Amino acid sequence: MAIQPARIRVLNDQPPRDRSEYVLYLMQQAMRVPFNPALELAIEEANRLNLPLLVCFGLLDGANGFPEANARHYAFLLQGLADAAAALDKRGIAFLVRRGTPAEVAIDLSEEAALLVLDRGYLAIQKRWYGEIEQKATCRVVQVEGDVVVPVENASTKHEYAARTLRPKLQKLWDDFLEPLAPREIDHPADGLIARLKRKDGLDVSDPDRLLATLTLDTTVGPVKRFRGGHNEASRRLTRFLKDAFAGYGAGRNKPEAGAASHMSPYLHFGHISPVEIALAIRAAKDADRDDRSAYLEELIVRRELAMNHVFHTRGYDDYGRAVPDWARKTLAEHTDDERPTLYSEQELAEGKTHDHYWNVAMREMRETGYMHNQLRMYWGKKILEWSPSPEEAFARTLRLNNRYFLDGRDANSFTNVAWIFGLHDRPWKTRKIFGSVRYQSENSLRKFDAKGYERAVTRLCEAEKN
């Protein structure tokens, strides 16, 4: 159960510092204790150096808050941190949450560390944080990949055209990375470490609601009851999914009313659960056939890691001119002046005030519960393209709405899925007005599932948010 060497990168040439107080781990992307290779490597190093382990987290709010994050996202994040804090304490590991950027917090605390361990994320802001740490930390810095099954550079060294080009590369490698990860024993518990260091600026994450109320945030989009953050909740949901809904997943996954979704995406987004842990559970699931397993692993590994490949190799993945392929921008530009029978403002879209009843239902689910089934997300996005004055404005609107309301917004999957609406990872189709040769989706796609059943389910979910 060793950590695969391909997951580990040494970012500087500094040797571990002598006369240090601890080994430091910046828990920023992988906000969990179980199945966290960065944490387990940090424990191994702490044991080797005869030191306790300190885990830290940099919490942003106010003017320096995480871009586009609001109270909905922060509530879920803080619930996950409370879960992690309790699990770390049980293992004898100190945890310090401080206000500041992850880079600021890690660089400051690294002054007393023998070694700094980082996990890994692929967004531009995360790359900036890690780059700043690499430049300014005065101790040895090691980074450990725990957010994907196959490390991005191992899977492919270029921007992949589509899932079909990345899939065989992943399938060739993923067995080497789908291995259990046993928790390491702590040789030197960190009892009283923070007090001894006289660190008095730590935030108490044991009461997420109380801490949330002290932060300066956009509160116009509030927390949801439908999802609670943390590994414990993610694990509970996964167990229930495997028991009650996984059999028949291959056939039911595209039917929003069927209840076949695992709802793991918010937990993967915040690093509250490992994709390796999920994949191993899927492989071990009883009463599920090969098609169900293949369909789920396609979504979990191939599609998700295609998104990681896209943001890793695309500078400006949130920009229409860079994220959308040339052929798609060309054909959309050729049809920019096509008559659009219906146009809506962004506010009308956000409030679900369109002529399309089931689009409004999907928007209500998104706005009030923080989630929308993938089958509806495709239709939802294509209609925004159809109802906006230009493809550039449609792209910006779709991304803003996506990032504002979805719990799993603002990550590699979101940026990639929005760009897919405009032709990314797709091919030219039959030419039509407005869309050119970019794939179109009509109201007829709603006939593929029980739309009325979906509406009833959304109504129940939204009513539960009020109680």
TrEMBL record:
Q: Where is the Photolyase/cryptochrome alpha/beta domain?
A: 21-152
Name the domain of life this protein comes from: Bacteria
The UniProt entry, under Pfam families, shows: DNA_photolyase (PF00875)
Q: What cofactor does its activity depend on?
A: (6R)-5,10-methylene-5,6,7,8-tetrahydrofolate
InterPro entries annotated for this entry?
Answer: Crypto/Photolyase_FAD-like_sf, Crypto/Photolyase_N_sf, DNA_photolyase_N, Photolyase_Class-2, Rossmann-like_a/b/a_fold
State what protein this is by name: Photolyase/cryptochrome alpha/beta domain-containing protein
Tell me the organism: Methylorubrum aminovorans
